[in-house]
Design a protein that fits this description.
The chain has 2 domains: 5-48; 53-106, Arc Repressor Mutant, subunit A (Orthogonal Bundle). 64% of the residues lie in helices and 0% in strands. The protein has 7 helices and no strands. Helix 4 (51-67) runs antiparallel to helix 5 (73-80) and helix 4 crosses helix 6 (85-96). The longest helix is centred in the middle third of the chain and has 17 residues, at 51-67. It is elongated, with a radius of gyration of 16 Å.
């Protein structure tokens, strides 16, 4: 079931917005004033994923969009927020099931979907 803004706890709304800025979970917990355990539980209940996993998915989505633009993989990695191309390749494959070069080949139009 999709999230409805009216039913999502303000803590989760804040966290999702900040995760787009690549902040750490520890920073988010400190910003909210909740305990680490409460923060994780509320986030997972609303989003279905732990905040760190959610952040990894967001970063992979940014990278997928950049792959469609035919930019070099090292440039995609740095622009999307990975520390280097090897980190990008490992994490992108872990999230999507495909290495970036294969994802690019199967997704000629910039986007988060591949042909099957």
């Amino acid at each position: 079931m999709p999230l409805r803004a009216a039913s999502v706890h303000p803590l989760v709304t804040h966290a999702i917005a900040r995760l787009n800025d690549d902040v750490s979970v520890a920073e988010l917990v400190a910003e909210t004033g909740y305990s680490h355990r409460t923060f994780l539980a509320r986030f997972r209940d609303a989003a279905g994923l732990a905040p760190k996993t959610f952040a990894r998915v967001l970063r992979s989505q940014r990278a997928a969009a950049l792959l469609g633009a035919r930019r070099p993989l090292a440039e995609v990695a740095l622009t999307a927020g990975y520390s280097d191309q090897a980190h990008f390749t490992r994490e992108f494959a872990a999230i999507t099931g495909l290495p970036p070069s294969r994802f690019r080949a199967l997704s000629p139009d910039a986007g988060n979907h591949v042909r099957v």
